[in-house]
Design a protein that fits this description.
Ubiquitin-like (UB roll); 2 domains; Creatine Kinase, Chain A, domain 2; about 210 residues
């Protein structure tokens, strides 16, 4: 009866601030963070713990639709914690959430933009770099000689919308192979949650195009 199973991909920030993930198979659909179990991983393999005491806990904080596998599968953004209840040195969400909660009644809105480069795995350079002329032709550009990597940017945009991420736009940037997306407006801690999951999806979708 495998079709009743739900895949929950736990996502966290590794020891060098890189994104990592692992998939847990659940027996029932999940509708809230409270339904998810705390999980663990070997922190010595991610530069987050010593080999003699390597257990690190994954504490679910936010869930999103999984736009790659489709419903009812989910993506789970997690914080990292030691078994003694202390957070890892680069796990800052709990601290940020305390700040956001202080004036929650004001309904503060936040927005962030994320610029990124698409790198050609064969040359190690940005897409279209060999044909680069001047930066003016690439910003918000169209056309095969000006815009490079649009398929990835568009696939990422659709994935974010399907995941429930509050993405508000994308555009090509001033260099070839450089793009940008915007997250927001969001209220409180969801700005950071939605940005990190958007970054995760960008990396996951790029795997299919470049591997």
């Amino acid at each position: 009866m495998g079709f009743h199973k739900v895949f929950a991909e736990y996502v966290w920030i590794g020891g060098n601030n890189e994104l990592r993930s692992k998939v847990r198979v659940l027996d029932n659909e999940v509708y809230s963070v409270g339904q998810l179990p705390i999980w663990n991983f070997d922190g010595s393999s991610t530069e987050q713990a010593e080999g003699t005491d390597s257990e690190v806990l994954l504490v679910p904080r936010a869930i999103f639709n999984d736009p790659i596998r489709g419903r009812p599968h989910i993506l789970v953004l997690c914080e990292t914690m030691r078994p003694d209840g202390t957070f890892l040195k680069n796990s800052h969400r709990h601290w940020a959430n305390e700040l956001f909660e202080k004036a929650k009644e004001e309904e503060p809105w936040f927005g962030l933009e994320q610029e990124y480069f698409m790198i050609d795995m064969k040359t190690g350079k940005p897409l279209g770099f060999e044909n680069a002329k001047q930066q003016g032709q690439y910003y918000c550009s169209i056309g095969s000689g000006n815009a490079f990597g649009r398929d990835l940017a568009e696939d990422h945009l659709r994935a974010c919308v399907n995941a429930g991420i509050k993405i508000s736009g994308i555009n090509a940037e001033v260099a070839p192979g450089q793009w940008e997306f915007q997250i927001g407006p969001c209220t409180g801690i969801e700005e950071g949650d939605h940005m990190w999951m958007a970054r995760f999806l960008l990396n996951r979708i790029a795997e299919k195009l470049w591997n």
